[in-house]
């Protein structure tokens, strides 16, 4: 697209209007750049979330747990059944052992009865042997007449001896049987003890099985809960997918918007470049200053500004150009805060330009911003850089300096009719004073004044802002400008 | 296996039985002793008692033999302010003119009663737990000490403004910083410390760019580590990931990382043997539940591999972090790593 130069001088009012329009457009371009950068970060986060959500795992885990709990249930039931059967068998065996013991006991008693009978037989046998001996003596006295009786007496004596020998064998056998019965009774006693132990083990096994069944039931409950979480995870994954889809749409729209705005801003720049010579002469200040920032050349920046002022350029336009260049310099493609040394390099160049320009431009009518370090905080670099960024963006900054008390913040906010109070803090223990600032503002009836903060603790954990009741936290100068614009725009609305 | 053995295994490429755990508990010493912070920090000998009470309470693997690194400015002639609601702060800057750098005399680190008391605390800890727990000392790194002596803005000005001034004064300044840092670290090792942490906020990627790091910070750090006779851990208090490759051959025993520095990336760049420490977000410990802390800790253990010491990112666990959270952090290391399903 080409731009036809204006042939007629442009009235100053029109020129100022165009210059103001150009500044606004550049502001919109930087806001669109903010949107695309933040949305890029949102898409990155959504990609991570999608990857994590799609990784799933909970559903598989809950399935595994359900299978495992079912197996556990089955195994425990088998163990309980086996324990029960074993208990029955042990009880049956115990009854058998008890019956056998009773029979054995009866056998022992019968053996004792036999032993007593044999003792009686031995006594009878001894009596017979004695009678046989007497018969033989009497037969001998009877002479020939007793010869036959003597033979009978002798045979009766032999029978008595034989009977005693036989009874001896029977007695020995009965003793052996008695010993065996005693040993068997001892073994039965051991068996009875073992049976009692086995019964105890079986009972314990049954109790453990019952308890494990209860635990397995608990596992099923846990599995149910896990499954619900798994369902939530799946649902979350779908929502994240949807968020990713919409974020991509926003990204496309924001990119298109940024490109359109940039093109429009470029068009206005070219138009302005074309008509400006007709009124005040064209200036190369903006690109020279931007290049000086890019290359960290403070002297080039100072020369560019001096040349522009010497050429009679409007300090308001130059201030606008400084703001545009500074705004670009605070940003990184990733949206992450740049190293402090880069902020320092940019800040000293921008501050030098502001120090030159601010005395010669009309008083800024932007909303005043009160800034300062938290109570007992003596680290001024961050506060100074952010102040410069805010000044460059067109805000009137009231800088209270180091270690500002809560009441001093509130007093300044009231006096200056500030819309935003910004507190810088490097340390956690000085950040702790932020709620005091909120209380001091509220005590003066300044609930509408927004309280924001920045500094190392908020880089480490931005959610600290919620802990301290803040309206926002900024991670870098660009973020501070964006946040203050947002808060002041809401206030104006 | 005791705490020292676990930590030694981690820093020497071995495989500890359990992941060593060393939350940086400094102010908690005052809490466990029931003493105001200002009194506690005013008498470094109380450090030993506080650290022993903390080990008794949490059963972690390391004790810290220093009250706070701000003490490092005292031998130079700077003063510190003690507070009841936080660590001490430096009162005023010693160097208000860069041209005074050449005439700056490097002090004996033990010339101040406060630093001598710190060494006495280290000796007392050594008498009680040497060989059982790792005794950890700390110094402000040579590239960060200037910001404590002249202010960060002035030091950045020296680094970023006039090249001629920088070339003339920065080497002189760095030589003095290295001299002081190494002597102070050595004194702590000689007093019984097993490991000295170099706290290096200014040389992190949060503050300087890579070119400045390579040109000015890296040689300074390398020389410092070379001159200290003993194990050194480096703590870039800030973003470390962009400079990881430069830490690989520095000769350090361990690198303390923050939450913003992904452990898998660090492991990939630094190889399997350099011990990593970290990387739980110390400020998030203020709001995370014990269950969440245990999860984060176990995830860190799983990601970092065996050469790892579970800890928080610098500079320390905040005073208001509940005991239950610290307990959860320590217990997480005692129960092994979580398994991660393949993506």
Question: Could you characterize what this model shows?
Answer:
The complex is a heterodimer of chains A (493) and B (343). Chain A is mostly helical. Helix content of chain A is 77%, strand content 5%. A five-stranded parallel β-sheet of chain A has the order 2-1-3-4-5, sandwiched between helices. In chain A, α8 (381-392) links the parallel β1 (368-373) and β2 (396-399). Chain B has 343 residues and is an alpha/beta fold. Chain B contains 13 helices and nine strands. In chain B, the strands form two sheets. A seven-stranded parallel β-sheet of chain B has the order 1-4-5-6-7-8-9. Chain B has a two-stranded antiparallel sheet with strand order 2-3. Mean pLDDT of chain B is 93; it is low at 337-343. At the A-B interface, α7, α10 and α12 of A face α7 of B.
The global form of chain B is: globular
Counting copies of identical and different chains, the oligomeric state is heterodimer
What's the main sheet of chain B like? 7 strands, parallel
Q: Whole-number radius of gyration of chain A?
A: 56 Å
SS field, number of helical segments of chain A? 14
Q: Order of strands across the biggest sheet of chain B? A: 1-4-5-6-7-8-9
Number of DSSP-assigned strands of chain A: 5
Task: Tell me the major beta sheet of chain A.
Answer: 5 strands, parallel
* Chain-averaged pLDDT of chain A: 84
Q: How would you sum up this structure in a few lines?
A:
Chain A has 493 residues and is mainly alpha-helical. Chain A has 14 helices and 5 strands.
Topology diagram in text:
The complex is a heterodimer of chains A (493) and B (343).
Chain A (H helix, E strand, L loop, with lengths): L11 H44 L2 H84 L5 H133 L5 H10 L3 H13 L4 H15 L10 H18 L10 E6 L7 H12 L3 E4 L6 H11 L3 E5 L3 H4 L2 H10 L6 E5 L1 H5 L3 H4 L4 E3 L2 H16 L1
Parallel strand pairs in A: 1-2, 1-3, 3-4, 4-5
Chain B lengths: L2 H9 L16 H6 L3 H6 L2 H14 L3 E3 L14 E3 L7 E3 L21 H17 L4 E7 L4 H6 L1 H9 L2 H28 L4 E5 L10 H18 L4 E4 L8 H4 L6 E3 L6 H8 L4 E6 L9 H15 L3 E5 L10 H12 L9
Parallel strand pairs in B: 1-4, 4-5, 5-6, 6-7, 7-8, 8-9
Antiparallel strand pairs in B: 2-3
